[in-house]
# Entry
Amino acid sequence: MQRFMITGGYRLAGTIRVSGSKNATLPIMAASLLLDGNCTIRGVPRLRDVEVMRELLIYLGASVSWEKDVMHIDTQGVGYQDVSEELMRRMRASNLVLGPLVSRYKYARISYPGGCEIGARPMNLHLKGMQAMGVGIKEKFGYIIAETDKLKGSEIYLDMPSVGATENLMMAAVLAEGNTVIRNAAREPEIIDLQNFLNCMGANVKGAGTDTIKVTGVDGLHGADYTVIPDRIEAGTHMVAAAITKGDVLITNVIPEHLDPVINKLREAGVYVEVKDDKVRVAMDKKPKAIDIKTMPYPGFPTDMQPQLMALLTLAEGTSVISETIFENRYKHVMELRRMGADIKVEGHTAVVRGVTGISGTLVEASDLRAGAALVLAAMASENGTVLDQVDYIDRGYERLENKYNAIGARIIRVHS
Ligand SMILES: CC(=O)N[C@H]1[C@@H](OP(=O)(O)OP(=O)(O)OC[C@H]2O[C@@H](n3ccc(=O)[nH]c3=O)[C@H](O)[C@@H]2O)O[C@H](CO)[C@@H](O)[C@@H]1O
Ligand SMILES: C=C(OP(=O)(O)O)C(=O)O
# Structure
């Protein structure tokens, strides 16, 4: 178990470079299972979740080498399609191997995935879509067994634009016979990145970024060399870090368009945001203004930024209202922020945040990845020291966050206990 000792009150000033996107890298690594050969992925972030996906690919028989941010995957040895509960439970995104395994081997057996406790997160849409493509699904003792003689292209309508279901079904359709159309598909930038990677391997996928994705099945794929997009949630977190510490930070390696919802909300809160090419400069010298936020599928405000924005709004002038519409259990940071002196009330999906003049450090605990990030931000803005437990959650999605912040003025020490 590891913890952060954070001394608050230091202003962040300088440049931070954003790493490759976790949520783009994970499906792209899973998609390599569609291939019988080699691929190279660049811009791969050093994250715990990426480590788990690497272990999963190796467990299935792939060879994976990873140096700095370049990963080589050779899938020629893959011959096993049965994933143990231990591996599946370590990460939610491990469910993304289902589509590629069924597409290539016509069989997969995986246990239900684990991950952060932010909601029930069922897989009904993934499974319904696969059934429409001719896959038999059995659910037994917490395992999903997916089997088919032949995957057939199909018309699929998603009841909600689930990111994971869209990705799993796109991957399942790549080697299916005929055409698949996914309607009400998720439109997140990571879906476009997956489409680009699949097409780089010789797939025929169109429409990612819109609500209709069309996949024409192909007979086989070839190797690819691909660079993943920068992580928009990491970038958004740094933007809030600059604002909450009343700092001035240049954030590089970003695609500003992916950050539109975050940039707009920060500007509404009075934060100075300047966009230039692949950089964003964020500066703040006063208290933020209260704003309302509703989390929505892309291009709406991302649920993965809700806890971080809440941390900022605890110190705003006035009262903010936050509605979390994606995950039913994504307010676990509220209790911890209250322990630091924040004034927040939660009723159902809504949190009412009354701005306070200051928050103070204490002993708090990360309950999940973004809750942990929000607590780091709050601790950097607080009047004294904070001890943050369970930072392993933060390592799931941020590459040595303390090093990035310490390099521009923060005081964070990682303690191994
Ligand atoms: C690895 C990755 O990319 N993770 C992201 C992905 O998660 P993930 O792909 O799991 O999120 P989804 O878009 O699938 O989930 C959105 C909502 O749909 C529900 N749902 C989903 C599938 C299904 O079969 N049935 C169902 O009811 C979920 O419980 C949730 O309430 O998108 C989320 C929403 O932007 C982000 O917070 C996660 O960071
Ligand atoms: C919820 C997240 O990830 P996952 O879907 O992998 O749990 C996240 O990145 O905030």
Summary: Residues 94 and 105 are 17 Å apart (CA to CA).
